[in-house]
C-alpha cells in the first residue's frame, strides 16, 4: 500500500504540474521560457483555486438546503494573509505542489514570496475574523464572511530616519487570482436625502426614504478551504460602483464631468480601509462604508431566504449574523428597515426576528474606542435609519422606566442616544439591545464588560452575556509558518493535532523531560532564529546573534500596549552596561514591529524612540553586542510568518484591563515562546493552561489599576523614588539617543512624568524584576526548553476551532463537525 500511496502522489504531482502549465498558457498567455516568477505564482494560484472550486460550487449548492442555518460573519475587516501557502496546506497538496514546481525548475518559496497579502484589516480583530473563517470551513459550518473589498488595505510602513512613513497599499496592482467577481450579484444602497410618510393602499402608515444618491455593491467571492475535508467556505466582499443609471441628464447637457462625478463618488465608498484601530474620528465616509456593506449583506440574506423558498418568519432559523464589534451594528436598524419598509412586516414581529438573528461581540473596553456617531451626521447620511433607531430607543426606554420606576439616571445611561454635549448615537447600546447574545473575547474581558461598560444591560438581562475566548488557527500559525516544529511534533504524536489541537497536542507532554527531544526542540528554535537573523540582516541591515535571547513585541503600536515600558527597560540595561554593571545581563535581541495609526502622534514618537535607542545601542562599542534593538518594518501577516516562530520571549505587557484578549500572545506561545505578561486579556487563561511556573507574570491587576488611578496617581513621585527608572528616563530626555537633541522626545517624557495614563512607571519595577527572572531562567537552556515544550503542549485550548465550536454551541445553535 506504501507504493500505492507513492504512485498516487506521483500522479498528483503530474496533475498539478499540467494544471500550472495550462494556467500559465491560458490565463497568463506566457510560455515557461518567458514566464516571470510572478507569472508562476499566478499559475500556481489558479491551479490551487481550481481544486477548491468544485467544493465551492457544491457548498454553495448545499446552502440552498433550507434546514441548515447559515452563519453570516459581519466584519469591516478580514486580515486574510497570503492565500497560496494556506490553500496548499488545507488542500493537502503542499508536497506535490513543491515537487511539481521544482520539476519546472522553480523554488516554491520564491513563488510564495510573490504574493502580495490582502491587508484588509488593522490587526487583532481583522485577523480573528480570518482565523474564524478557516475554522468554520474546517468544522463544516455553513458560513459566509461578509465585508468590504477595499481597493487599498492597511498602509505599507517604511522607516525613514527612524520615523514611520506610510505608503498606499496597492494590493490589487498585479491582479487577484483568488476572487471571483459576481457582477449579477449586486444590490442598491441608499444614502442621504430625506424621508416622506404616506398611506398605502391598505390604509397603513408607511415611510419612504428618498435618498440623495444611490450606490451599487458588487459581490466578490473568495473561496476559503477547510482543512483536508473537501469543504470550501465563502468570503464575500462588496465593492462599490455607480448605479446603472448613467447621469443622462448631465450627459445631455454636455456636462461630461458632472456625469462622471457620480461614478467617482460611488467608487469612493470601498476605496480605502481606515487605519485606526482604537479611536474613531466619526467620519462620514466611514459610516457610509459600514452601512454600505451591511445593507448589501442583509439584502443578500433576504435573497438567499427567497432562493431557499422560506418565509420571512423563518429568517432566524435560516440565518444568524455575528457582529464583529460595533462596526456592522447598523445592521440592527437596517434589518428593521428591510422588514418594515421593504417587506411590510409589523414592528413587533420585525423586532422579534431581528433580536433572534443578531449576536454581538465586543472587542474593547477603552472608552475612546466605543463607536459614537454625531446625531447631525447620522441624520444626514442615514435619515431613515435614525428614525428607526429613535423608535427602537423609545420602546426600549419604556421597558426600562417600567422596570426601574423613577430611575431617570439609569434611563440616561442606557439610552442609545447620548444626550450629553454634542448628541450622539451609541453603537454599542444599539448592538446590545438588538442582539440575543453578547460576548467578550476572554474571561477577564467578559467579566469587566458585565461589571463596567455594559453593567446596566447585564443587570437587565444577565442570561444573554457569554464569554468566548479568542483562538487562532493552527493550520496557518503552526503548520504553514513553522514547518520544522510541525515535523518534529508530527513524528512524535502523529498529525491529528492539526485539527484536534484541544485534545491531541497535550501528548507532547511526555517528551518534555526527554533529552533527545529537548535537543531536537532546541535545534528547531535555533534554526528559526537563524532564519530570522538573516532576514533582519537583509531588511534592516543589523547583525543579530541567534544565540542571544530573542525578545519580541509585535502588535499595533499603542500606549495601552506599552511598547515604551519595554523601551524603558532597554534604556535601563544600556545604562547598566555604560556603568559596567553587566552582571546578570543575558545577551538579548529586542525585536519590535507594528504600525502606528497615521494620526497617532505619540505612537509614531514611540517608533522613533525605538529606532533611536536601537541606533545608539547597536553602534556603541561598549555594548559589544550584549544587547541589540531592532525595529522590523511593515509588520503584517506575511512577515509574521518569520517572526513568531523565532521568539524565545513574547511580550504581552498591556496595562491590566485594557487588552481585551490579544491573539499574538497565542501565536507566540503555540510556537514555543515563553510569555512575559500582565494579568490581562487571554494572558491569564494562557497562564492557567501552561502553568504559572512556565509563565513570567508581573504587574498590577485590573482592580489595582482602577484603584491607583482613583487614589490620585502621581507618576513623578515614582520617577523620583526609583533610581534605575529615573536614569532611564533622564537618558532619553538628555538626548543620549538623539544626538544631543533634547526636544524630540520631550512630549514623550512629559506625558509619562505628568500623566502616564497607562501606568508605565507604576509597573516598571515589577517588569524589570520579572525580566531579570527571565534572564536567569534563560541561562539554563535545558530548563528553558522544557518550559517551551510544556507551553506548546498545553496551548490546545487556543485553537480557533475551540472558539468557533463555542460560538456554534452557545450562540448560533448550529451543528459542527
Ligand atoms: C472604530 C474603529 C476606529 C476601529 C477599527 C478597528 C476600532 C477598533 C478596531 C480594531 C480593534 C481590535 O483589533 N481589537 C482587538 O481585537 C482582538 C480580537 O478580539 C483582541 O484580541 C484585542 O485585544 C483587541 O484589541
UniProtKB/TrEMBL annotation:
Per UniProt, the keywords (alphabetical) are:
Carbohydrate metabolism, Glycosyltransferase, Pyridoxal phosphate, Transferase
Catalysed reactions listed for this entry: [(1->4)-alpha-D-glucosyl](n) + phosphate = [(1->4)-alpha-D-glucosyl](n-1) + alpha-D-glucose 1-phosphate
This entry carries the following GO cellular component terms, namely:
cytoplasm
Q: Provide the GO biological process annotations.
A: glycogen catabolic process
Q: Give the required cofactors.
A: pyridoxal 5'-phosphate
List the InterPro entries: Glycg_phsphrylas, Glyco_trans_35, Pyridoxal_P_attach_site
A Pfam family found in this protein is Phosphorylase
EC assignment? 2.4.1.1
GO molecular-function terms, A-Z: glycogen phosphorylase activity; pyridoxal phosphate binding
Superkingdom as given in the UniProt entry: Bacteria
What the protein does comes down to: Phosphorylase is an important allosteric enzyme in carbohydrate metabolism. Enzymes from different sources differ in their regulatory mechanisms and in their natural substrates. However, all known phosphorylases share catalytic and structural properties.
Query: Hey, which family's this protein in?
Result: Belongs to the glycogen phosphorylase family.
**Annotated protein name in UniProt:** Alpha-1,4 glucan phosphorylase
Amino acid at each position: 500500500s506504501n507504493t500505492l500511496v507513492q504512485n498516487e502522489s506521483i500522479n498528483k504531482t503530474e496533475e498539478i504540474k499540467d494544471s500550472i502549465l495550462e494556467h500559465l498558457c491560458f490565463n497568463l498567455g506566457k510560455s515557461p521560457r518567458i514566464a516571470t516568477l510572478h507569472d508562476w505564482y499566478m499559475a500556481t494560484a489558479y491551479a490551487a483555486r481550481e481544486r477548491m472550486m468544485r467544493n465551492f460550487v457544491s457548498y454553495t449548492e448545499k446552502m440552498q438546503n433550507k434546514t441548515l442555518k447559515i452563519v453570516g460573519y459581519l466584519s469591516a475587516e478580514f486580515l486574510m494573509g497570503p492565500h497560496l501557502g494556506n490553500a496548499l496546506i488545507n488542500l493537502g497538496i503542499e508536497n506535490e505542489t513543491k515537487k511539481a514546481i521544482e520539476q519546472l525548475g522553480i523554488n516554491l518559496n520564491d513563488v510564495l514570496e510573490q504574493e502580495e497579502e490582502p491587508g484588509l484589516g488593522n490587526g487583532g480583530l481583522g485577523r480573528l475574523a480570518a482565523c474564524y473563517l478557516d475554522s468554520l470551513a474546517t468544522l463544516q459550518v455553513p458560513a459566509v464572511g461578509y465585508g468590504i473589498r477595499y481597493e487599498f488595505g492597511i498602509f505599507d510602513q517604511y522607516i525613514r530616519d527612524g520615523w514611520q512613513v506610510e505608503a498606499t497599499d496597492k494590493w490589487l496592482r498585479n491582479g487577484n487570482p483568488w476572487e471571483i467577481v459576481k457582477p449579477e450579484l449586486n444590490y442598491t444602497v441608499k444614502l442621504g436625502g430625506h424621508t416622506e410618510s404616506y398611506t398605502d393602499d391598505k390604509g397603513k402608515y408607511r415611510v419612504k426614504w428618498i435618498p440623495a444618491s444611490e450606490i451599487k455593491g458588487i459581490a466578490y467571492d473568495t473561496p476559503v478551504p477547510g482543512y483536508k475535508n473537501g469543504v470550501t467556505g465563502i468570503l464575500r466582499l462588496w465593492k462599490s460602483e455607480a448605479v446603472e443609471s448613467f447621469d443622462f441628464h448631465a450627459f445631455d447637457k454636455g456636462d461630461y464631468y458632472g456625469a462622471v462625478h457620480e461614478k467617482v463618488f460611488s467608487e469612493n465608498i470601498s476605496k480605502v480601509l481606515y487605519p485606526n484601530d482604537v479611536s474613531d474620528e466619526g467620519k462620514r465616509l466611514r459610516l457610509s462604508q459600514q452601512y454600505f456593506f451591511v445593507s448589501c449583506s442583509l439584502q443578500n440574506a433576504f435573497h438567499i431566504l427567497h432562493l431557499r423558498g422560506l418565509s420571512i418568519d423563518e429568517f432566524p432559523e435560516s440565518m444568524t449574523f455575528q457582529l464583529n464589534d460595533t462596526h456592522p451594528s447598523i445592521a440592527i436598524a437596517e434589518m428593521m428597515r428591510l422588514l418594515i419598509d421593504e417587506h411590510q412586516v409589523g414592528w413587533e414581529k420585525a423586532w422579534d426576528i431581528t433580536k433572534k438573528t443578531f449576536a454581538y461581540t465586543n472587542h474593547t473596553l477603552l472608552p475612546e474606542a466605543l463607536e459614537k456617531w454625531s446625531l447631525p451626521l447620522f441624520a444626514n447620511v442615514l435619515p431613515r435609519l435614525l428614525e428607526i433607531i429613535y423608535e427602537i430607543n423609545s420602546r426600549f426606554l419604556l421597558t426600562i422606566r417600567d422596570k426601574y420606576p423613577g430611575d431617570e439616571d439609569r434611563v440616561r445611561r442606557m439610552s442609545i442616544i447620548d444626550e450629553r454635549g454634542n448628541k450622539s448615537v451609541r453603537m454599542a447600546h444599539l448592538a446590545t439591545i438588538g442582539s440575543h447574545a453578547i460576548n467578550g473575547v476572554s474571561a477577564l474581558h467578559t467579566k469587566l464588560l458585565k461589571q463596567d461598560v455594559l453593567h446596566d444591560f447585564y443587570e437587565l438581562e444577565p442570561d444573554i452575556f457569554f464569554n468566548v475566548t479568542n483562538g487562532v488557527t493552527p493550520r496557518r500559525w503552526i503548520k504553514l509558518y513553522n514547518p520544522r516544529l510541525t515535523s518534529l511534533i508530527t513524528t512524535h504524536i502523529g498529525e491529528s493535532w492539526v485539527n484536534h489541537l484541544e485534545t491531541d497536542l497535550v501528548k507532547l507532554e511526555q517528551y518534555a523531560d526527554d533529552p533527545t527531544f529537548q535537543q531536537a526542540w532546541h535545534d528547531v528554535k535555533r534554526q528559526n532564529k537563524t532564519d530570522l537573523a538573516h532576514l533582519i540582516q537583509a531588511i534592516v541591515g543589523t547583525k543579530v546573534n541567534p544565540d542571544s535571547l530573542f525578545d519580541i513585541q509585535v502588535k499595533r503600536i499603542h500606549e495601552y500596549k506599552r511598547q515604551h515600558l519595554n523601551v524603558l527597560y532597554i534604556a535601563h540595561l544600556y545604562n547598566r552596561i555604560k556603568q559596567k554593571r553587566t552582571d546578570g545581563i543575558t545577551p538579548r535581541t529586542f525585536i519590535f514591529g507594528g504600525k502606528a495609526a497615521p494620526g497617532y502622534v505619540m505612537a509614531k514618537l514611540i517608533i522613533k524612540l525605538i529606532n533611536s535607542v536601537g541606533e545608539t545601542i547597536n553602534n556603541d562599542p561598549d555594548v559589544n553586542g550584549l544587547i541589540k534593538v531592532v525595529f522590523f518594518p511593515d509588520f503584517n501577516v506575511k512577515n509574521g510568518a518569520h517572526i513568531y516562530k523565532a521568539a524565545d520571549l513574547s511580550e504581552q505587557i498591556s496595562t491590566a484591563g485594557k487588552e481585551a484578549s490579544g491573539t499574538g500572545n497565542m501565536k507566540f506561545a503555540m510556537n514555543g515562546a515563553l510569555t512575559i505578561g500582565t494579568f490581562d486579556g487571554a494572558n491569564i487563561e494562557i497562564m492557567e493552561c501552561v502553568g504559572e511556573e512556565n509563565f513570567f507574570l508581573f504587574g498590577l491587576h485590573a482592580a489595582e489599576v482602577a484603584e491607583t488611578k482613583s487614589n490620585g496617581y502621581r507618576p513623578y513621585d515614582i520617577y523620583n523614588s526609583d533610581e534605575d527608572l529615573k536614569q532611564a528616563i533622564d537618558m532619553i530626555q538628555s538626548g543620549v539617543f538623539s544626538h544631543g537633541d533634547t526636544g524630540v522626545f520631550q512630549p514623550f517624557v512629559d506625558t509619562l512624568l505628568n500623566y502616564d495614563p497607562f501606568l508605565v512607571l507604576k509597573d516598571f519595577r515589577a517588569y524589570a524584576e520579572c525580566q531579570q527572572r527571565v534572564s536567569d531562567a534563560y541561562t539554563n537552556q535545558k530548563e528553558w526548553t522544557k518550559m517551551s515544550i510544556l507551553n506548546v503542549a498545553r496551548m490546545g485550548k487556543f485553537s480557533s476551532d475551540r472558539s468557533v465550536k463555542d460560538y456554534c454551541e452557545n450562540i448560533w445553535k448550529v451543528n459542527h463537525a
